[in-house]
Each structure stands twice: as structure tokens, then as C-alpha cells.
Amino acid sequence: MELLHLHYFRTVAEELNFTHAANRLFISQPALSMTIKKLERELDTELFNRNGRTITLTNQGRILLQSVEKIENELALVKDRLSNPEQDVTISLASSHGRFIQILLAEFLVNPSATLFNTEILSNREILSQLLTDEIHFSISFMEIKHPEVTSEPVIEEDIVLTYPGHYTEQEVMRVLYDNETAKSFLFPSHNKDYNSFIKLKMTEFSLYADSIRYIDDVSLQVALRQQRHFSFVPVSVCRELKLPFVAKDNLTIVSKIYLSRLSRGLTEEQQTVYDTIKQFFLREAASFVK
After folding, report:
1. Residues 124 and 213 grouped into a single domain
2. Inter-residue contact 155 to 282 (CB < 8 Å)
3. Rounded to whole angstroms, what are the CA distances from 174 to 96, 168, 211?
4. What's the rounded Cα separation, in Å, for the pair 272 and 138?
5. Which of 9, 61, 141, 260 could form a cystine bridge with 47, CB 3.0-4.6 A?
6. Rounded to the nearest 5°, which phi and psi values hold at 106?
7. SS3 call for 77
8. Same domain, 70 and 110
9. pLDDT band at 218 (very low <50, low <70, confident <90, very high)
10. Mean pLDDT (the chain, rounded)
11. Care to name a GO molecular-function term for this sequence (predicted)?
């Protein structure tokens, strides 16, 4: 299967007319028809439904078209990078939490010439999948990414503490914490099931139970927390940022780790530079992540 033949196929699929496609490709219509028939024989399937001069894509043709578009788009990107080696480097990274991305973008995009980032908020399973397929270069998460092809290193620890409604004092919280009504007042972020499972497991260890679990998105969660009407386990750095009250006792503090993960085979020089810079940033700011 030749790339040129795939390009011919894509052109016919876009034009849905052999004559128009041939004119666009600057080849004869019979030569184009023969190329498509050869491709169909090679794939052992029909790519087009033919009804006189009218043609449409078959289901197999649509599947092939999607793949060809991806291949040609990737080749175009590679060609552009090879012809412009000094262009801006774009780093693709994912995180288990939007706050990690916010922290990094605030730190690294203040410079007009700074590295550009493609970012996503994903579950650990999605992060692993995209690392293995090179869709992202590295990730930042609160849990280790376990796979033989992935290096996942803990960078710093952070304290996750219990914030509570503002009309309570910390002493009052300790008296009402195990009441039934209190159990109905916990908030959890809706975007991250891994985090919620982790927190609920730790709550069980504290003999705390959330009878009616409320899941809300990150933006709504911040708004709700600012109102100081609910209980929630949140990083102490978030409590400081939002000026939230929190229980300082160690026996109600969850100690977690922040991991940087990448493929074990390594990164390019530019990617490694950004990776190391992010790692040093977290190490430098480690004190802000603990009580």
C-alpha cells in the first residue's frame, strides 16, 4: 500500500467524482480508476459504491478515510517540524487535577516566549493510555501510574485536610463531625473518580461516612467552598488560596504524593528540559503543599 495511492483515495472520497478528482490530481481519469481498483484488491474490500457516474463511500471506505486523514495530517506536522526546527515547542501533558495545570500555566506562561502547553484532565487509566500512545509527553497526578513502560516518580507530598462550614469553630467541628446531618454535607469533585475513591477510603479509615454524596464540577466546587457551607477534603494549598477554615489535626489529615510520569524510554531534549523545570518548581514550592 503506497502513500500516493492513499492520497488518491482521499481525493476521490472528498470529490465523490473520479473526473473532478483526476483533474485535481493532474492525472487521467482511467489511471485514477485503475489505482483505486488496485487499492480495493489489495485491501480485499470495496471502498466506493458505484452507480453510473454517482459514487459514495462504503462503510469500509469511511473507516479507511478516517485513518488516511490522520496519517496525512501527522505527516504534514512532521514535515512542518522538519522544515522549522527552531519553531516553538509545544508540550502535551495531562493531569488528574485541574489545579495542577492552573499552577503550572500561571508559572510558565507569563513569559511571551514560554513553551506552549496542550493540557487535559484525565483519570489515571486515561493518562496511562495516552502516555503509551504518545498522545501526551508526561503527566502530573496524585497517584502513581503503574506500568512497565512508564516511569512514575513521586516529587513532593501534600496534605489533604478537612474544610468545614464557616459558622463552626474547629472545636465545634470535632463535636458534630460524626452526626448524621454532617455526613450529608460533604462535597466531592465530579471529574475525578480515582481521587474520590481514594478520599472515601481514607474517610472510612477515619470512621467518616458521606451518606448523600454530592458531586460537582471543579468551578462549582470552588464557588461552593468559598461560601463555607459544606464539608470537603481538599488540599491545604487550596484552603490557603480560598481562605477556607480547615482541621489542623494530624489524625484528620490525608498525606498524599504528587507524581510526575513519562515513558521510560525517555523524552526529547526540549521535553526533558520542561519536565525537569516542572519538577524543580514543585520541589521549590513543596512547603506550600503541606500544613
Report:
1. no
2. yes
3. 31, 10, 18
4. 10
5. 61
6. -65, -35
7. helix
8. no
9. confident
10. 87
11. DNA-binding transcription factor activity
Q: What is the pTM of this model?
A: 0.66
User: Which residue range forms the structural domain that includes residue 69?
Assistant: 3-83
Residue 57: beta bridge partners?
A: 48
- Residues 10, 64 contacting (CB under 8 angstroms): no
Per-residue pLDDT, 247:
95
Among 83, 115, 144, the domain-final residue is 83
Residue with cell 496511562: 128
Q: What 8-state DSSP symbol labels residue 251?
A: G
Same domain, 66 and 191: no
Q: What is the mean pLDDT of residues 71-82?
A: 71
Grid cell, residue 224, equals: 461552593
Q: What CATH number is associated with residue 39? A: 1.10.10.10
Q: pLDDT band at 273, cuts 50/70/90?
A: confident
The three-state secondary structure class of 121 is strand
Block residue for cell numbers 516529587: 155
Indicate the residue type of 214. R
Judgement on whether residues 141 and 269 belong to the same structural domain of the protein: yes
Counting the structural domains of the chain, the total is 3
Cell of 228: 463555607
